[in-house]
Amino acid sequence: MSKHFQPASLAGAIAIVLTSNTTFAADQTIELDPIVVTASKSEEKASEVPARISVINEQTLTQSPIAALPSLLQQEAAINMVQSGGYGQISSIFLRGSNSNQTLVLRDGIRLNTISTGAANIAFIDTTDLKQIEILKGPASVLYGTDAIGGVLQLISKTPEKTSAFITTEAGEKSTYKAVIGADLVEDGFYAQIRGQRLETDGTRVTDFNQSNLKTADYDQKGFSTKIGIEQKEYAISLDYNQNQGTTGYIDCNLYNLDYSCGGLKNMSQDFKNEAINLKSRINVTQNWDVNLRLSQFKDDLNQNDANWDGSYDYIQSKTKEADLNAKWQFTPEQNILMGITRQNIEGDVVSYATPYNGDVDSTGYYLQHQYQQPGLNTQLGLRVEDNEKYGTHTVGQGAIRFQVLPLTSIYANIGTAFKSPTLNQLYSSYGNVDLKPEESTSYEIGLDQKLNYGLTAGLSLYHTKVKNLIDYASSAPYYFSNVSKATFQGGESYIAWQNEGWFSKAAYNYVKTENDETHTELNRRPRQSFTLTAGVENEVYGVSASLSAKSSAKDYQQNTPGYVTVNVNTYWNVHPNVKLFANVENLADVEYKTASYQAGTYYINGGRLASAGVTLRY
Questions:
Q1: 582/572 Cα distance (integer angstroms)
Q2: What is the pLDDT of residues 9-37, one digit of tens each?
Q3: In Å, how far are 145, 293, 295, 394 from 385, measured between CA atoms?
Q4: Backbone dihedral region for residue 498 (phi beyond 0: left; psi -120 to 50: alpha; all else: beta)
């Protein structure tokens, strides 16, 4: 893959920005108490949430533009990120032992989980315009409805704060290149934002299958986003549009042995396109009442370019439309009530291995939440009634409390139920069953957070989740999707963090034991132990940091996947208020680690070192 680079043009651009007079903007280090919105649909400090929530901040998101979302999520110890290869390959989130379709993925409230598998195609989601990623662990169906059994992963986009423009380029090994250009306009409460980006890479091997004619899986992606809005004390309105599209290579079986194992592979490719539209508004009716409305649509399409072994061409065309209206009443200085209604329609047109199906499902959710907030005590109680046209009415609830037992010590506890509705694939495919019930869960959690001397903080959480009515293929005829099993996830996580005058570090450990309660076997792709460590120094001029992610071995479909350790290194240097240079090394030790089983004796591999360097010019 060729890349064209013009040194004269770059030198000219640098000369222009060097002539301007602008002060340095400090880079962010690990923020120990960030503001989050996912837990209650309102802004609050992470330390006051009566649940465990973590944040991937803007500094981490921008330190390497070519870092894909699956790579960024590896920094969270509670997540096992399984990617079947490198760039653009199928990626699955296993949060606290839950399945990949039991974690809800949002972008500013827009549901990104697909109608076919129920999981989000996170390998195709670009992070260019994100401010932070919030990871809420534990059930959240009261506020968000289906899919939030394991938790919620929410992508929070940036809102312009000042008029500016920038261009960023980064190039690295494996012919990997990304360019981002953007501009912001802010004036008297009005703002406008525009972003464009392009990524190309030759990619890496997908499996360790020994076949000389297999190519690496290349990836080509481009995207565009824009946002306009007005933010005033009495009202606000914004319109956000985001689109990403491209082509990704992958492999599939081309030759089957007599035992139906794969005897040969072939390179294939598919086109993808995702598009999100989000209209949000807020009106402060009185000093104590505000009303919020969100209208959103998410389209997620995949089209296969190469025929399957049976000569068919697969495609998935999906659309999720949602309207959410809620009102918040602050009826005392310490208490508020949030009342809301969500109307959702999902529809899909799918062909899978020459088997087509069409389907759509309507649902309406009614939710109520009460919060009590004062220094040292925070409570949250909620109830949701979901009316789904396929399985009828379903009710979930949640209660949580955080209490400051000492000036530097707080404890929290929560209990909640959640659910996951059947996907269109489970309802309408050739193995579908329109009589499926939703998967249901009950979760318990307790935790402690402790501030220590010398800028240290630490925390510990213990959790237990039981899920029933799990949807899977029936083990006996007739062979179709059924509510066939139960499962239990239980474990704990801990962290210790330190920050002082630009220096920072954070270590996190997660242990989870999963079990199929019917067969008494461990669930696939859930390593029991996970450890992450990030450390470095950052200030207005320079920054150096390193992050380590380690996973223990995990049970898989064909054979166990071994544990692995990866290390990333990131650096930057603000040579001028308008010029930033940066360099990154992903997977420093050049480890081709095994992430999932492909077939007996063969694994998907994800890895190889990716060293890169780039520059940001800002005005």
A1: 4
A2: 434 443 433 444 444 444 444 566 899 99
A3: 9, 19, 20, 6
A4: beta
* Whole-number Å distance between alpha carbons of 81 and 605: 13
Structure tokens at 281: 């508004």
Look at residue 515 in the predicted model and tell me its pLDDT.
96
As a whole-number percent, the residues of the chain with pLDDT over 70 amount to 94
Contacts of residue 310, Cβ cutoff 8 Å, sequence gap at least 6: 353, 354
Could you give the CA distance from residue 119 to residue 121 in angstroms, rounded to a whole number?
A: 7
Return the exposure string of 98-133: e unless at least 16 CB atoms fall within 10 Å of the residue's CB, then b. Answer: bbbbbbbbbbbbbbbbbbbbbbbbbbbbbbbbbebb
Structure tokens at 270: 């598919």
End-to-end CA distance of the chain: 31
pTM of the model: 0.93
Q: How far is CA 483 from CA 158, 361, 385, 406, 508, in A?
A: 41, 19, 21, 46, 35
Q: pLDDT for 361-378, tens place per residue? A: 999 999 999 999 999 999
Which class for 210: exposed (0-12), middle (13-18), buried (19 or more C-beta within 10 A)? Answer: exposed
CA–CA separation, 327 and 337 (whole Å)? 8
Comparing 39-53, 258-272, 326-340, 479-493, which segment has the lowest mean pLDDT? 258-272
H helix or E strand, kind and range, residue 114: none
Distance of alpha carbon 80 from alpha carbon 73, whole angstroms: 9
Residue of 586, 580, 519 lying closest to 201 (CA atoms): 586
What is the tens place of the pLDDT at every residue in 558-613? 899 999 999 999 999 999 999 999 999 999 999 889 989 988 888 999 878 999 99
What is the mean pLDDT of the segment spanning 383-387?
A: 98
What is 130-150 written as a DSSP string?
Answer: EEEEEEEES--HHHH-TT-SS
DSSP class per residue in 447-504: EEEEE-STTEEEEEEEEEEEEEEEEEE-SSSS-SEEEEEEEEEEEEEEEEEEEETTEE
Asked if residue 108 lies in contact with residue 155, where contact means CB atoms within 8 angstroms, the answer is yes
Q: Work out the pLDDT band at 475, boundaries 50, 70, 90.
A: low
d(CA 472, CA 370): 36
The b-or-e profile of 161-197 (16+ CB within 10 A means b, else e) is eeebebbbbbbbebebbbbbbbbbebeeeebebbbbb
pLDDT single digits (tens) 33-70? 899 999 999 999 999 999 999 999 999 999 999 999 99
> Is 7-618 CATH 2.40.170.20?
yes
For residue 552, the tally of other CB atoms under 10 A from its CB is: 15
Enumerate residues 6+ apart whose C-beta is below 8 A from 520: none
Give the number of other CB atoms < 10 A from CB of residue 237. 15
Alpha helix (H) ranges present in 353-506? 424-428
- Please report which confidence band the pLDDT of residue 105 belongs to, taking 50, 70 and 90 as the band edges: very high
Can the peptide bond before residue 562 be classed as cis, meaning omega within 30 degrees of 0? no
Collapsing DSSP to helix, strand or coil, 7 comes out as helix
